[in-house]
Amino acid sequence: MGGNCNVFLGWSTFSLTVTLIRNNFVWIYRVMELKATTLGKRLAQHPYDRAVILNAGIKVSGDRHEYLIPFNQLLAIHCKRGLVWGELEFVLPDEKVVRLHGTEWGETQRFYHHLDAHWRRWSGEMSEIASGVLRQQLDLIATRTGENKWLTREQTSGVQQQIRQALSALPLPVNRLEEFDNCREAWRKCQAWLKDIESARLQHNQAYTEAMLTEYADFFRQVESSPLNPAQARAVVNGEHSLLVLAGAGSGKTSVLVARAGWLLARGEASPEQILLLAFGRKAAEEMDERIRERLHTEDITARTFHALALHIIQQGSKKVPIVSKLENDTAARHELFIAEWRKQCSEKKAQAKGWRQWLTEEMQWSVPEGNFWDDEKLQRRLGLSPRSLGKSDADARWCTGRNDCQCTRRDSRSVQ
Predict the structure, then answer these.
(1) Which of 48, 92, 403, 404 has the lowest CB atom count within 10 Å?
(2) Tens digits of per-residue pLDDT, 27-78?
């Protein structure tokens, strides 16, 4: 090993070049150091009076203190001139600043230019690495979200954490990424996901929806007997796991259901066996079945009522098939049972008859015949034709007529209204 020491312009700055011959290779290390002058050190009374440039950082030290500043934490370097001496200022994250005082001004300038060039050269090399990490992160996000599919809230749940982990591994401070042309655009895209991920998701889905409405314009015109309007088409394209569509009767909700099933098939997002349409009534389910066969040309998609689905599930797991009372779907039968039970209660219990007479005459303002009014056919028809004539909903009527111990006195009647 051999070495030589060259002193530059005074005695506050020196450059040390060390030559090491090892394994037939010549390794040359150059260390540049800046020191405060004797008088500057005495007057400044600062903990740091010297600085040494390292391969990827800078070390400032004094008689009792030493501080190592890695380049990947350094945000800026400032060279300032005081009344007599020079000053170097190293800016770090969280508004922290490390200063070196009492150095000869000319030497301070030379040291600063050398350090700044070395730091910027290192930063340029690291920016290439950072750019690759950012682009890789955006590629992963694109793969996860997909430009050609709807982005759900569940899919974005881990995106921010994924970005933060990638940023923590960058060789440059994130505060400096805007400085580099090769990092700026990718960094801004990552920032958009970090700052307001919901806005980014909505923006993505809006762009996706517009693209799908244009690309599949023929589908939305032909999937139903009448072309879907924009609101219906947007509901069909929406890919959230659950979606509430509020619309009035006859506004096209069934058309949206049929079109949604067709959309899932056309996009390959589901097979016919994976699609289930549910309706509250048998008639509505039969209508959907017919529309599916007519518009989608398949019989593999089934529409069921909730009760039919429950029976189907029970049948799959049990040999015992439950029997559902016809009263569940037969309104006339329910009313017939109600009238029979009502007549029985009134004829057997005077309190029941008295309570009903009082309720019908005082509360409902009906004309009730004298004597056994429960045998009056006109009154029976009036009671049986519409449960709402009693001030009850269909659900209330089913509750009342489905009980063998129905005690519909005046007090009870008020409680079920």
Answers:
(1) 404
(2) 444 458 888 777 767 676 777 888 999 989 999 988 888 999 999 999 999 9
Helix pair angle (230-237, 253-266), 10° resolution: 50
The answer to whether 247 is a known ligand-binding residue is yes
Domain 218-317 in CATH: superfamily? Answer: P-loop containing nucleotide triphosphate hydrolases (3.40.50.300)
DSSP, collapsed to helix, strand or coil, labels residue 33 as strand
Q: 42 near 25, Cβ under 8 Å? A: no
Pick among 3.40.50.720, 2.30.30.240, 1.10.455.10, 2.30.29.30: CATH of 2-121: 2.30.29.30
Q: Is 415 annotated as a binding residue?
A: no
Q: How far apart are alpha carbons 205 and 155 in whole angstroms? A: 12
237 against 149, higher pLDDT: 237
Q: Find out whether 253 is annotated in a ligand binding site.
A: yes
146 is in an annotated binding site: no
User: What span, in angstroms and rounded, lies between the C-alpha atoms of 263 and 230?
Assistant: 15
CA nearest neighbour of 342 among 350, 352, 351, 328? 352
Phi, psi of 79 (to 5 degrees): -110, 120
CA torsion sign for 150, 222, 249, 306 is negative
Does the annotation place 252 within a ligand binding site? yes
Contact 167, 190 (CB under 8 A): yes
Residue 302 annotated as part of some ligand binding site: no
Q: Where are the alpha helices (DSSP H) in 86-229?
A: 105-145, 159-168, 181-195, 197-215, 217-222
Domains 2-121 and 218-317 share a fold: no
What percentage of the chain has pLDDT greater than the value 70?
82
Sketch the domain layout of the chain as residue ranges.
2-121, 136-207, 218-317, 329-416
Nearest partner of 262 among 292, 294, 217, 225, judged by Cα? 292
Q: Is 268 annotated as a binding residue?
A: no
Q: Report d(CA 206, CA 234) in Å as an integer.
A: 10
Task: Give SS3 for 239.
Answer: coil
Is 211 a known ligand-binding residue?
Answer: no
End-to-end Cα separation, the chain, in angstroms: 103
